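Hello,

Our lab assistant flagged a job as stuck in the queue for most of the afternoon. It eventually completed. Since we weren't sure the result was trustworthy after the delay, we are filing this so someone can double-check. Below is the sequence as submitted and the structure that was eventually returned. Let us know if re-running is recommended.
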Amino acid sequence: MSTTQEKPMTLKSLSHKKDLLTGGHRMCSGCGAPIVLRQVLLAVENPVVLTNATGCLEVSTCLFPFTAWRVPWMHSAFENSAATASGIETMYRALRKKGKIKKEMNFIAIGGDGGTYDIGFQSLSGAMERGHKMLYICYDNGAYMNTGIQRSSATPFGADTTTCPAGDVVPGKPQRRKDLTRIMAAHNVAYAAQASPHNWKDLITKVKKALAADGPSYMGIIAPCNRGWRCQTNDAIQLSKLAVDACFWPLYEVEGGKWTINYDPKDKKRPIKDWLKPQGRFKHLFAPGNEWMLEKFQQGVDADWESLKKLQEAFGR
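-- returned structure --
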């Protein structure tokens, strides 16, 4: 048995790894999605195959005849990134059984929240339920950004979108966002987690755990979109951190049914308005007469955070 210990993960050690998503793609300046995917790919040790649902990341990284990907990558339709990955993973297992493939491989399906929470939910749920050894990653920017900033079920309460515009009659999206990470955990997957690109070590560690898990894994990763969020092009990391500090996007993982909160801001917990204020999509929430919307948003975040802490108390380590 080898006694070699894995070297500590540092930014210096990661800087020597080959970048599997190159520069020169057409993603918007300051977009959170390529930041997220670069960190994800830094965690990969085995040969990897990616499937990518239609969306911002897909259309901007593979404009024929060019590609920004240095790994096998397959564009699937909007709704079936998980189904495509599960088919590839099944073929791989069959070839391994026949002895035609010897090496260990990883399989990652990618989708934005439109192609994950909504259009692709059926194939995602099916792949998780069938138990394919694959990781599904949702880069969550909270709307259908690629097709015009329409609301999705990941869009937060009150957000101004092109299909739920803030006005005198409708003050933005009237519903709260769907909590897809908890829904995936309810599928009894091997591993489920939330991560943020501002905490690279937590994100990369979770991807390594997800790829090593004996079964299907899901990760939701916040990925700010400056066009849809109407913020500055250099705000992605700061807004990701604020989302975590305000407990809108808590960092946690569910491993073998055990719930663990990875970061608890405790007395440093920020009010949700600190995260909302820099985003133009929420500017109407700060107008006179809309105080109730800020209160409702804060109440929802607080209730979700308390519920998460109870899950850790009941099903944690």
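-- support follow-up --
The delay was a queue issue, not a problem with the job. The result is valid. The longest strand covers residues 106-112. The first helix runs from residue 11 to 15.
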